[in-house]
Design a protein that fits this description.
This protein is mainly alpha-helical. Helices cover 51% and strands 4% of the residues. Residues 446-476 have low confidence and may be disordered.
């Protein structure tokens, strides 16, 4: 993503919530590199990488992570939907996790001032959502966007579980009461916010929120007949129950919940959280056709892909929005977190993490090893769809399904496009849906509801009034973008980690 040929080919930047996730990937990558240093004395089995090389990569990434703290457009994302805010929370908690692991390895300390700033950024954005769990409709859950009619969707609530448990496990505390995302926020918006409360590390509130959220999520039947998580629930006029389900299936909705389940086990030692994760992962893998024995049937749509390769509905149709272009990478990022080895010894960084007995650790390892071939298969498919700039495309399975494509380009393959299942609203890739019932906006919200514009889209001064999904079509954004490359990084890092963990067991 950082090579000059890439940037000479593309000049688009990402929308803000995706930028937060891309920065999360940098921190996660630095954690993976640190684990190599810790576990292998600085050398990766079967690789020529050395400790100085790895340290150099870590430093390069960290410089960019740190600089993005000041460059992040926090004012824009602060006013977006509730899901957007939580990507920022996870972004800076992941940076803190990296710093904790690296400092424990080096017996040193990166700037404590950085840790305080990362923690405060996470605190500011968590504060936006921590009191939004609303029992007046659906018995609980968080509404996607207050500008819309009530819609309690999977991603917002999965993120609340994941961000809450991440705050409980890794947030170091924050006594800075400044509630504003930027110094100019009050003057720019003519808004005065109440001071932030002090927040202690491992505050029970975080754990309570995570448990409460997951209990509610399970009670609402977010899964279809296949066991895949659907997008969300509307509340009909005059009703209080979630009575109209959107059957749309997206890959990222199957993923974010996994890191939350892993965190809940670390905080409670309740094995049911891991068991729920194993069940969902098995469902997703089956839904890509991976376990289909007949080759001709494996090439048929299985619910979330074919030929063992994850795919979103928009991939073959080539109508993915910027949002959707990152979805698969998000899935594999959170799968990777879920499959980190269970701790059996007191961690280097003292916290609230529970310890697994030998049988539980072995069972977890066996489950995750069984996923490795499928993860690697997806990584290989992703890198097979690079263009002349070595940028990974959005539809990882195109070459397996479109034999006429041999140049890395991606275009609509309508004979492979799959009709949406009945009752599905694909609001991510068709924001015009937001103008109609049951989505009708209470104010102008199409831009805010889907995620907001990119920070630099080359579309002129009126760009901020146009939904970014329309910007994608208007500015000619191709199928190989910073977003699709970020998605590729997600699956490649996961494949690297899964393979490394298996290699380490045999050395």
């Amino acid at each position: 993503m950082q090579a000059p040929p890439y940037w000479s080919g593309y000049n688009w930047t990402s929308i803000q919530w995706i930028s937060a996730f891309l920065n999360t990937e940098l921190s996660a990558t630095d954690r993976s590199l640190t684990e190599i240093l810790v576990e292998n004395d600085g050398s990766l089995p079967g690789s020529s990488f050395s400790a100085p090389t790895i340290d150099s990569e870590i430093s390069k990434h960290y410089t960019q992570i740190r600089s993005f703290l000041d460059g992040e457009d926090t004012e824009q994302i602060f006013g977006a939907a509730y899901d957007d805010a939580q990507w920022v929370v996870l972004e800076w908690i992941e940076a803190i996790k990296f710093m904790n692991e690296y400092d424990a390895y080096t017996n040193g300390s990166r700037s404590l001032d950085d840790v305080r700033k990362f923690a405060h950024r996470a605190h500011v954005f968590y504060n936006l959502v921590q009191n939004q769990f609303d029992t007046s409709t659906c018995g609980g859950g968080i509404t996607w966007n207050p500008a819309l009619e009530p819609y309690k969707n999977a991603i917002t609530n999965e993120l609340f579980m994941a961000s809450s448990i991440a705050m409980y496990l890794y947030f170091p505390g924050d006594y800075n009461t400044d509630p504003y995302p930027t110094a100019n926020y009050s003057s720019d918006t003519n808004t005065t916010l109440p001071s932030l409360p002090f927040m202690q590390p491992h505050d029970p509130l975080f754990l309570d929120n995570a448990i409460k959220e997951y209990d509610w999520f399970k009670s609402q039947n977010f899964t279809n007949e296949q066991g895949l998580i659907v997008d969300g629930f509307h509340v009909s006029k005059g009703q209080t129950a979630c009575d109209e389900r959107n059957e749309m299936v997206y890959s990222y909705n199957q993923g974010v919940i996994l890191s939350g389940l892993r965190g809940l086990w670390e905080a409670t030692a309740d094995p049911s959280y891991l068991a729920d994760g194993y069940d969902l992962i098995a469902t997703v893998i089956d839904a890509t056709g991976w376990n289909t024995q007949d080759a001709s049937k494996a090439s048929e749509w299985a619910g979330l892909g074919r030929n063992g390769i994850m795919e979103d509905y928009c991939d073959a149709a080539a109508n993915c929005s910027q949002d959707a272009q990152i979805f698969k990478g998000i899935y594999f990022h959170h799968l990777d977190i879920f499959c980190e080895p269970l701790p059996t010894e007191t961690p280097l960084v003292q916290g609230v993490t529970v310890l697994a007995d030998g049988d539980m650790a072995a069972t977890h390892s066996e489950h995750c090893e069984s996923y490795a071939a499928w993860v690697t298969h997806n990584a290989e498919a992703a890198i097979s769809n690079r263009d002349q700039y070595n940028v990974i495309g959005g539809w990882w399975g195109e070459k397996q399904n479109n034999k006429n494509n041999d140049d890395g380009s991606q275009s609509a393959t309508l004979d492979m496009a799959v009709p949406l299942s009945p009752g599905s609203w694909d609001v991510v890739n068709d924001p015009s849906i937001l103008d109609h019932e049951p989505w009708t906006c209470e104010r102008s919200c199409r831009q805010e509801a889907v995620g907001g514009p990119s920070s630099d889209n080359g579309s002129g001064s009126d760009a901020t009034s146009i939904p970014h999904t329309e910007l994608q079509k208007r500015d000619g954004r191709p199928s190989h973008t910073v977003d699709t490359q970020g998605s590729g990084v997600g699956v490649l890092r996961a494949a690297s980690d899964f393979t490394r963990r298996m290699l380490e067991k045999t050395v």
